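Task card 7
Instruction: Convert sequence to structure tokens.
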Amino acid sequence: MSSLTDLFLLDPGVVFFNHGSFGATPRPVFESYQHWQYELERQPVHFIQRRLKPALQDARAALAAYLHTSVDNVVFVTNATLGMNIVIRSLALGPGDEVLATDQEYGAINNTWNYMAGKRGFRYINQPVPFPPTTREEFVEALWQGVTPRTKVISISHITSPTALILPVEAVCRRAREAGILTVIDGAHAPGQIPLDLDALGADYYVGNCHKWLCAPKGAAFLYARPDRQRDLEPLVVSRGWRKAADDPTHFAEWHQFQGTRYYASFLAVPDAIRFQAEHNWEEVRAECHALAGYAKARLLEQFDLQPLQPETPAWYAQMVVIPLPEQDAGAVYQRLLDEYRVEVPVFVTQGRLVTRLSIQAYNTREQVDYFVEALRAIYRNGSAAGG
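Output:
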């Protein structure tokens, strides 16, 4: 795995354990991104009016195959938050309706749901679920304690941002469908980190980032919708594709994907990101990353005599893991790690606990993990994370 380090563009002077926030793009994929930018600038009219549409179709077809669904079910968007906004703003919800989520959702998505709840009059509920979790069955039952006859939508993360847990979305989608409840899955951290089969998963709507764990350039994400739910989605930006009839199978992409003059290079480089991972045996890379994340967790738990926040199994976490730390000022710990040790890693409070969220990608090594553990040990040994 360490042989892949030189293929990434990251500053070698920084130990980078924060892939989960914005990703990192390998050199060959970034070169593809630049190629598409250059092609646009060489002949803008020819590119946008004649080349762009078939090129986007090819890129969507590659992405759809990767996600195990039809090309007509997937459309490119710039990030998962935008995709969630399309869904949230489109759903016909009003007074008396309820949307159920967990208490571990991403802040921007909570904001969007709360914003629309204020405008439309429905209730958005963050149902507490077990943390640390025990079994996947217990999670589903805890979530279901928030379901009422007024629940119209369940909106949950596939992999949570603040706790890095892989949630049992397949079971939730199955039970929701039986109850006639729509499901909206925020899969921002899923593509590239865990295998996906969107048709089998069973969600009504699913959004995911390509620029995080799939390692595509920034600004590449997707929105998936079941065929029978696509016509319910309204475009955030009305552009020339809006006149495509809703009963045309290509209307989903036409309505949502083209938004006038801008760079589409991130979308067009997605097949190269998929190809890069396939050529470098990414299933094996993911397994090695999970093992290294487990090693880091074990070392820190032993160092500070703390208990884990998730079961030790790939069913609950993959390449990103939340590890508890002794109580200190989160901002001070983060800043000292960055300033004194050149370690880029989030340190924050979630569910009432101080944690670090460690993202392990193909460029990380055991030596870096050991260095990180020693850096934290030195910070806490001083007795004050603020230093002096």
